[in-house]
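Narrative progress, year one. The postdoctoral researcher (J.K.) led the effort to move from monomer predictions toward full complexes, under supervision of the PI. The following entry was the first complex the group processed end to end, covering 731 residues in total.
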Amino acid sequence: MPEVKLVNITKKFGDVHALRGVSLTIKNGEYVCILGPSGCGKSTLLRIIAGLLQPDSGSVYIDGEDVTHKPPEERQVGFVFQNIALFPHMNGWGNVTYGPTVKCMDRDTAYKAAKELMNILKIAEYSGFYPYELSGGIAQMIAIVRALAAGAKLLLLDEPLGALDPRVRVSLRYELRRVVKDLNLTAIHVTHNQEEALTVADRIVVMRSGIVEDFDTPENLYWRPKKLFIADFIGKVNIMRGVVKKVVGEKILVSLTGGQLIELHAKGFSEGDSVVLAIRPENLELSSDDVKQDNSLTGTIVRARFMGEYYRYDVRTENGETMTINHPVDRGVKKVGEKVKVFFNPEMILVYPYPEKGIERELMVEI
Amino acid sequence: MGSLRLSNVSKKFGSLTALKNVNLEISDGEYVVLLGPTGAGKTTLLKIIAGLLKQDSGEIYIDGIRVDDYPPEERNVSLFFQNFALFPHMTVLENVAFGLKVRGYDSREAESRALEVLRLMHLDDRAYSYPRELSGGMQQRVALARTIVTGASILLLDEPLSQLDAKIKSELQYELRDFVKKLGLTALHVTNDVEEALALADRIAIINKGEVVQIGTPFEILEEPENVFVAGFMTDMNLMEGVVEEVSENGIVIDIGNIKLRSSRKGSFKEGEIVIVGVKPKDFKIEETGSGLTGKIEDSIFSFKYKRLIVCLDNGLRVQVKTDKDSFKNGMYVSLSIDPSKVYLFPCPKGGLRAAIAEIAGVS
């Protein structure tokens, strides 16, 4: 359960800046995801932590010790790749005990530890199977045991669920988290899948173009993102432009394109500021058109889908925008073509200064 | 016109059964998603419908006509592959028109039809671009235009969105459905992604190990799963093995290991029978104090509007509970209750719950 500290890590591949000064501290026993679009530098960062790559500058500390120039085998880390790399000519047990064997560890202790890991991951019965006889999910679990069998307490996972069926990906992510917590490991898990990161991690590092954009809990990143980029990248948001008309204490009145006025809670804005509103689909409320409701827009439902716990409605509003609303199933069903009111809860609207270089540029996954 | 009917279609590859007595009826203009894990037989079924593979037994009817002896090009279907490949040296327009030219259309007519489809898909302003100049999502749309331009009324889509990243995919999937509906096409869409199926389908057919195990609207499938496989594959239901203790007009009482649950759902179960009990995480009511079902919170995981709590019950079973309250913390002792109408019961499959879960997770 080591602590990992990165100080000002940079890395260039030719002319490409893969990492531009990354500093962060991952606590003992934490499950951290590194999330970002492909090419953001997330796998490079993981490889630097593992010692498979050397940074151009900066330092890596594991449990307070500077390991920047230590080879991978002296770092006590377990590494798991996306393309489940098991030895094809060895069965599950052979794969799992390979590390301890080549490291000449005490056989009895190592075997006992490996057996226990197989039990905790609930895959003991697959010991005798060869990789080609196993499904992707089981093979990946064996790869995880192999990564840990030599006693690693820091587990590095590079898109560990990427090669699996979506359904398997979901059940295995809870399994992964359970194992990491039960064994008191520190885990760093690289993924490009937002939902996976949100539902497995204690904290998430969001990266873009070699920079850490934010490092925070799923709750904060999803409900209280500090930047418009994060709000949009981490999950679906409805984005609207407006201008601040009036500031009253901690409330502001925003005029949308189309002239409708919406009141919301926000600090640090002045009259005349151009702003961007970002609203999660589950934070908009629908009511029928005849209900009198302040702080709302009227609109027509243009699309309706049942998604299990909610209906997803797309509403064409009076100011000409299409908004997506997740409406809980127990609040009733609406039909396509129905006129509705969309209520903006003042406390649930995220507001940001209009980005200098425009919205599109702000939201780009590569900068 | 584009209705499709499969009657008892079976196919074996050597000793491996790929499809077993598949029956499926799709009406003209319907969007049906064929959903199942890798290796369930989905692609094999599409290839058989398209005429690229021959079934061992069973019949295929398109618009009421048996087409088993028709070659692919005479079946009124077009097939869209997962790994579509656009010709890199051709413009978007040339790519889309290519299939028509091969079929003998003169080049002017082919291009005018291609342009019309591109216009419908809002791609006409990119007609003279080359594939490399387009984003992944746009290339996918061009490939789709190329499939549709042939004029077939049945569109067979083999994992058309699987290569796209999550954000583009969620935008494109609604667009795809709108487009199919606008053109009045019939679609059979193959995927292993539950969310994608829910977003797209009028009806979902769930296939496992070559057998269609349930067909219904997204609502029917999620609310009334007919077996453990469907329940586990489609929902995040907690599945537990139990023994029927009592059957009466008050419902069925099941023992899940020193804990009793009551179900008021229909089902013909006998006392002493082993059954699988299913409870959706959102259907548990959780309180800080109380009696009945008690346990300790082991972990708490972000789940959008909810928190997903891992609760270890007194009998050692771990269940997932979804709550929108913030007051529950790790280590707390809590009490759970469930409305008996929300306690699902399923016949226990061969091999028990363990085998069923392994099957759902694709590990069998």
